[in-house]
Here is the input.
Amino acid sequence: MIDFEPSEEQALIIETVRQFSENEIRPQCRVTDEAGKPDPAVLSAAHELGLVANALPEAFGGGGERSAMTGALIAEELGWGDMATALAILSPGLIGLPVADHGTQQIQNDVLPSLLGAQFAPGSLAIVEPRFDFDVFHPQLTAKRDGDEFVLDGVKCQVPWLEGTRHCLVIAAEEGHLAGFVVPTDAAGSTAEPERNLGLNGLPTVEFALSGVRVPASARLTASDDEIRALIDRGRIAVAAAALGGARAAFEASRDYAKERETFGQPIATRQAIAFKLADMAIEIDGARLLIWEAADAMDRGQDATRLTRLAADQTARITLEVADGAVQVFGGHGYIREYLPELHLRNLTGLASYETLALV
Amino acid sequence: MPIDFELSPGSQISQKHYHAVAEAQMRPISRKYDLAEHHLPTEWVDYWWAEGRKGPQDKAIFDNDGFVTVCLQAEELCWGDAGLYLRMPTPALGGSAVSAAGTKEQKEKFMSPFREEGGHPIWGAMAITEPQAGSDSAAIETTADWDETTQEWVLNGTKIFCTAGEGASTVDGGFVVVWATIDKSAGRGGIKSFVVMANTPGMELIGCEKKLGIRASDTATLRLDNCRVPAGHLLGSSEVRKKNPKKTGDKGFKGAMATFDASRPIVAAMATGIGRAALDFVKEELSRQGIEIRYDAPPRELTAIERDVIEMEAELRAARLLTWRAAWMMNKGKPNNLEASMAKAKSGLAVTKITQKAVQILGPIGHSKKLLVEKWMRDAKINDIYEGTQQINQLIVARRILDYSSALLR
Here is the structure.
């Protein structure tokens, strides 16, 4: 039966994360961006909320409650606070969720307990490659079997690399099919070069180059090509939801500013040119959110969500950029200076189309 | 209940049923009545009166999604043909007005003929727009004067763009809901709506408009010349509120405007039906040429057409979900003024662009009248105009999100 209202449980989660976002994340948003890394205190506090742990398996001390819908709701609220911090908080899921789903026993034992410990432990994923025609489903980084080991060769970029990261999940092509390998961050033959990006500056990333890196066969996820594609779709929905939160923040900021800023004796929000722009932002944000929810709902039903994810992710990438650009424009000159947040939203939301992640929810 | 996107069994039956009706009854005569403008589409009208209005004969239909299911019916039938949909013998917007503002007796009196078996097809309509007043409906000039001696209201004025106005004004049993002011000095507070039965002396059908699209729909001009209606035909109260100048009797006017909160989701659903007709056809035609949309291809590998189709599809789906949300809020009894306008604004513009793009993508065959694509483009455009233009709905959304009154943002 059609219903657009979050359940009581979902509403409670939304409210909790919203408050956390407002009280803890948002005040640090600008500092995080300028410092190029999130505030460890915020990550610790988020860890105590157990947002990622709740989705990890019970056998390792997690909550065992996996839902793309709940994940999307959480991601939007975190993203509303700050997208970079949101992705940092969710980063344990980048490796934890795929390993929980498809890891060998040995890898699960290596990876999961640390993510579920008393302290926040970040996760990392190497999926994007540094070229314009990057195809997430056909990576150029290769994995070749050699006896009891796999040998990995290739270069990844935009790899989240928070302080304390121990393992990175590397997505490779193995005989033409997608495969995932858990690689220690200090593996012999690997180099991690810090990157500087247009946006999401609060999330430190590296270019991760692997040259003849050897990992044991047990480091390979058992996931099939299709299963990895499904994980990628889940990541797209989570990133889209976080981006939507960022766009919502940009919209709210410009709405409030437009009511305060006066020209010719009246608030600029009383001018149709501004008011209609704000109305369009509100409409597009709500429309994209419903597309995200529809795709998440299909995932939670175990249906093939490839098409719905494409529609939701593309639409969100398009409209969040429009919203962020509109927000800078509503702020005028003030939108261009770093004292205010619109320019940060615009930088964050411009790169979204290239930002791929696994799972996350 | 958590967030849920699965249609109820009744909705699925309804969707299937009306899709079949659209395919079998509407599509075959779609071009015929586009060309024969102003001719009554008798096949369709007679079918609807005899069979169509009974709806699906399946008990599971009652397990449905309320107004969302109504939206599904509108979407499917407008996927068939929007002009024919507007020509269906139903109470239409006149019925919405009676339902929203009428007493129990009025509802029974005016609506029951539409449920009676047999007889002949009848229509309902609503007449608001005037030559000098469209979006600014508070500026209408049609008057209603109370005649104490005969205990009647006397209506005078001219109404234009009245959808289904020919049938509703000339076929016995039907009615037109006419908006008129009983006190011009009271502004909005003086505006009331009156039920004028078909063929009431003094109501004259001047003619029907020749239009860009929805040509099967009778868009009438009506003249009211000392047209007398009984006291019981006024919908709502005759009280004119103007004591508090800040609240110049907005209740009656707002009550009338509330009709739009219910009708806008339906219009938005009609729009998505036309948009889907065009999109479905584009995808089928591409498929016939061996082109399937690759939803899993990287952006750089997509062709321009694939990109267009994916964007059209996302836009249409966003419009449709916004529409369902506005309709679902009515089920819950939640105020949906903001959401209804969001749905209408999004759908109206999205399907205008989608159908135009469909014509462009298909090139010569999109332009040709051999197919229906060019017609869908013409039919779609009205959805960004009637029931509140794009700009009026933006205005409503903007006022809501800014918490501004109509005086502050106009």
Remarks:
- The longest helix of chain B spans residues 250-288.
- Residues 114 and 261 of chain B are 23 Å apart (CA to CA).
- DSSP finds 14 helices and eight strands in chain B.
